[in-house]
Write a structure and sequence with these properties.
The mean pLDDT is 94. The protein has 2 domains: 194 residues, NAD(P)-binding Rossmann-like Domain (Rossmann fold), CATH 3.40.50; 188 residues, 3-Layer(aba) Sandwich (Rossmann fold). With 426 residues, the protein is α/β, with parallel strands linked by helices. The chain is 36% helix and 13% strand.
Length: 426
Amino acid sequence: MSKHFSKISVVGLGYVGLPLSLQFARSGVSVLGLDLDPAKVDAINSGQSYLKHYSSESISEQVNAGRFEATTDPVRISEVEAILICVPTPLDEHREPDLSFVLDTAKSLAPCLSPGVLVTLESTTYPGTTEDELRQVLEDGSGMKAGVDFHLAYSPEREDPGREDASVKTIPKVVGGFTPNCGNLAQTLYGQALDNIHRVSSCRAAEATKLLENIFRSVNIALVNELKVVYEAMGIDVHEVISAAATKPFGFMPFRPGPGLGGHCIPIDPFYLTWKAREFGKHTRFIELAGEINTAMPDYVVAKVVDVLNDQGKAVNGSKILILGLAYKANVDDCRESPSFVLMENLVSKGARVEYNDSYVPVIPETREHAHLSGKQSVLIEDKYDLILLSTDHTEYRRFDFSNFNCPIVDTRDCIIQRPAKYFQA
């Protein structure tokens, strides 16, 4: 297809939208970023980064070149030829899909859509969202028909913050259109900025692809989490076993256990399919079992902490505990759905006085589930606590010398190399 996109808009300038915007801008496409947060908009327009793994220089370069600007005004959407929606899709308090961010965004954009515009959704969701709920809102608000007056597609984000061996440009992009022509346009759009586009037959197939990717990870993490508990009872180091199994060059992929699932994908995405499957009278027993195992891991870790403190002649109640790592994964500043929050809450509920250390998250931001913790600040790593609990395997913790510490350390990631005498895995 000969269509060439010269100006697009990326809606939602977070961990997905910002790197996507930068990649399109670097490829010569003019990008209008749209976000409700005026602080993010002001930061971009002044060439400043608010995500630790993206430099201010990477933003200012594109802003100064006139290829990237940001706004809070949805009316300006009328200027662009394509709109990429990158907003959150969390679970609500009943663990059911919350599409409010997607649908509210669509309602604000619909009256501003120009004829012929391409709208693609990147937010993770259940199959049918794009061609059912999103399409209906856009059609109702614009008075136009999808696949006729404007174009509609789905392309799941595959952003992996902190990863150094892949980038937005090099990670293959899955795209599926509402109609064949919609798919053609989406393939052309992403092909202008990304190296490899994988076309699928529909929006539903693309939505299902994203869910499969994260369900695969969730199930395998649940497996090694369960084996960690079993092997510990047998006196076997599960990490040694995983490393040994990983020497097999076929038929095995290593996953590592931890204190629970975190991030914006793996703890959430499987439940999107579980919820949708019930509409078709199907039950996702395997997925739900994996969810139960992973959700139970913080309780297992806290029980380990209780045992270690008991062995030192101390109760949890009144003990001072330092949690190492608030981010959900190593070397990023993203703490969404982090199991560290659950560990912190559980220990506090038992009477512990809990601090945390994380150079990537120096201050706890506002979160939907743990709003009362916002503003709490990271402290120094010192040998003055009754126990130290490692939750996130940041590289700096691997390099830190704990060998002379007197307090016990519980390591949930097999992370610490220079270990003290009182070292325990969980």
